[in-house]
Task: inverse folding
C-alpha cells in the first residue's frame, strides 16, 4: 500500500510540473533566425530560409497564401509558430 502511494505521489508531482510548464514557446516568424526556426517540429533548413527571406507576415497563414511554404509543410509547422506584428508595420494598415 505504501509503495502504491509513493508511486502515485511521484506521478502526481510529475503531472503538476508538466501542467505548470505550459505550452511550448511559439517561434515568431517575423523575428526568429533560421537556427531558431529549426527548433519547430517539422521544419527544414530550406523552409526556414524561405520563411526568413519572404518576411514580414501579418499572420502565419500568409506562409501558404503567399506561396512561401506548401500546405503540407504548413500543417507540420503551424502549431509551433506565430506571426507577431513588427512595430514599423503596426501603423501601416
Result:
Amino acid at each position: 500500500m505504501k509503495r502504491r502511494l509513493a508511486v502515485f505521489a511521484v506521478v502526481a508531482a510529475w503531472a503538476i510540473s508538466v501542467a505548470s510548464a505550459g505550452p511550448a514557446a511559439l517561434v515568431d516568424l517575423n523575428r526568429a533566425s533560421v537556427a531558431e526556426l529549426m527548433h519547430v517540429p517539422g521544419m527544414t533548413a530550406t523552409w526556414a530560409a524561405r520563411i526568413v527571406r519572404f518576411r514580414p507576415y501579418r499572420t502565419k497563414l500568409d506562409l501558404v497564401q503567399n506561396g512561401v511554404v506548401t500546405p503540407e509543410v504548413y500543417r507540420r509547422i503551424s502549431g509551433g509558430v506565430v506571426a507577431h506584428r513588427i512595430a514599423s508595420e503596426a501603423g501601416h494598415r
User: Anything to note?
Assistant: The chain has one domain: 24-90. Residues 24-90 form a domain with the DNA polymerase; domain 1 fold (CATH 1.10.150.320). The first helix runs from residue 2 to 21. Confidence is low (pLDDT under 50) at residues 17-22.
